[in-house]
Amino acid sequence: MPNAGNNDESDRSAVILLSGGLDSATVLAMARREGYACHALSIDYGQRHRGELSCAADVARALGAVDHRIIGVDLRAIGGSALTADIDVPHHGSVAEIGSAIPITYVPARNLVFLSLALARAESLGARHLFMGVNAVDYSGYPDCRPEFIRAFEATANLATRAGVEGRPFTIHTPIIAMTKAEIIRAGVSLGVDYGLTTSCYDPAADGAACSACDACLLRRQGFVEAGVKDPTRYGTTSREFGR
Amino acid sequence: MPNAGNNDESDRSAVILLSGGLDSATVLAMARREGYACHALSIDYGQRHRGELSCAADVARALGAVDHRIIGVDLRAIGGSALTADIDVPHHGSVAEIGSAIPITYVPARNLVFLSLALARAESLGARHLFMGVNAVDYSGYPDCRPEFIRAFEATANLATRAGVEGRPFTIHTPIIAMTKAEIIRAGVSLGVDYGLTTSCYDPAADGAACSACDACLLRRQGFVEAGVKDPTRYGTTSREFGR
Questions:
Q1: What stretch of H or E contains A123?
Q2: Which residue, A208, B9, B41, B138, has fewest beta-carbon neighbours within 10 Å?
Q3: pLDDT tens-digit map of A109-135
Q4: Per-residue pLDDT reduced to its tens digit, B111-170
């Protein structure tokens, strides 16, 4: 419980960026365990895998968020990523094939945009804590998943806002930034996260089934195997299961 | 001309945040004079004074921008400001009455959100220069108009992006940050800016006429008087002209 006995609501309120995926669901459960009143925030950025927004709503409800808002921002107008533009999402046969270069699924400055919106929501609420499920292990190719970016953002946030300059600084919490997918899954299971409510696939079928071969599916599947936890994900039965 | 003789397009391309107001129009003219190929970007953030978006399109065309995009982001879902929520915009009789506290027209983290979107657009374009018309003189009550915020954002941008981490850093240009409104107007007139195309009013009438009594109108009017330049603004003929 953060600052137990303190009546300042802003010390107990947090904004949680919730994507509908496995990582951010775990982060929400962690923030709840620490006693935060959690305001879940999802971003509708024109992603092709929009089913994640309804997953986010289900996760927020299941894990006891105070509320859940969806903010629309049209990153399609920016272009340049397979997640928002009409570019094929790459598929691979195994995690080993993914490679370490920045992938085409990278959305320019996405986490910066998301954190900025979360900060705006937090300042409007009077909340001083932001939680985000960034991960520097699986997403080592994404510059905006690294701890040095998070620290720089926090410093910027405290110069950008009324609360920051008035001596009520924001803290950006990234509790899973250095955890492997298996560690994240084990932590979430111990906190009662129902991963069957979450989705990770970048390229799901029309019925919502995961493709099993995009980077996100491969990392997720391997995580469940390594964690020794039964994978609740519903995978499609198309040829994609065998790689394409 | 930036790096004349250099064939690297990214050294000659810039993203300009264009609001439709006087300040950002001047900044676009300045960037054009310096030889940048200017990609204008406006943000449709649910502002009540939406006429500024069509003004931005006119300004972009008149000043020779390469293109002009509008990105939608629903800051109304965040709440907390007179510019996006159903809160009365304050009116004053003179500039002296405006006061120095952070005003209700402050939109939480707005410039951080705008710069993040401009950065995303720049990275997608391969541009390395961002221009923004923030001003620390007239808007001293807004934390996100101060030079220390801009420098912190620049550092964050270069940690958040592929270009930044790959040694092609971004530069955030804020050429009018320390200028008075009169100085901005004189600079713009010398560069051929038609301020009749711009709008500043936070609370325009249905026909687009400026209210003449919101903070933005008062600062603009006084700027033209001090610059000794004829004010092309069309003000309404309601009682607001006499303060309310």
A1: helix A110-125
A2: B9
A3: 889 999 999 999 999 899 999 999 999
A4: 999 999 999 999 989 999 999 999 988 766 788 899 999 999 999 999 998 888 888 899
The pTM of the whole model exceeds 0.80: yes
Are B146 and B111 a contacting pair, CB within 8 Å?
no
Contact B159 A152 (CB under 8 A): yes
* Residue A210 located in a structural domain: no
Q: Decide if B143 and A120 are in contact by the 8 Å CB cutoff.
A: no
The domain tally of chain B equals 1
Mutate to test the interface with A, among B39, B42, B67, B73 (most CBs of A within 10 A): B73
Q: State whether ipTM is beyond 0.90.
A: no
Q: CATH number of the domain that B125 lies in?
A: 3.40.50.620
pLDDT band at A203 (very low <50, low <70, confident <90, very high): confident
Per-residue pLDDT of B82-96, as tens digits, reads 556 565 666 767 666
Name the residue type at position A242.
F
Please give the backbone phi and psi of residue A157, each rounded to the nearest 5 degrees, phi first: -60, -35
Mapping DSSP to helix (H, G, I), strand (E, B) and coil, where does residue A44 land? Answer: strand
Query: Which domain range does residue B106 map to?
Result: 9-231
Contacts of A65 (CB under 8 A, 6+ apart): A16, A18, A28, A32, A38, A39, A40
In this predicted model, what pLDDT tens digit does every residue of B194-204 receive, in sequence order? Answer: 999 998 888 88
**What is the chain B residue with the closest CA to A154?**
B156
Nearest chain B residue to A78, by CA: B121
Out of B112, B143, B152, closest to residue A116 by CB = B112
The chain B residue lying nearest A118, using CA atoms, is B78
Asked if residue B237 belongs to a domain, the reply is no
Q: Which residues of A touch B53 (CB under 8 A)?
A: none
C-alpha–C-alpha distance, residues A220 and A82, integer Å: 19
* Domain assignment of residue A163, yes or no: yes
> Taking CB atoms and an 8 Å limit, are A112 and B108 in contact across chains?
no
pLDDT at site B135:
92
Is the pLDDT score of A243 beyond 50? no
DSSP H helical ranges for chain B? 22-33, 51-62, 110-125, 147-160, 162-165, 181-190, 215-227
In-domain check, residue B24? yes
State how far residue A77 is from chain B, nearest Cα, in angstroms: 6
B69, containing H or E segment? strand B67-72
Residues of A in contact with B110 (CB under 8 A): 120
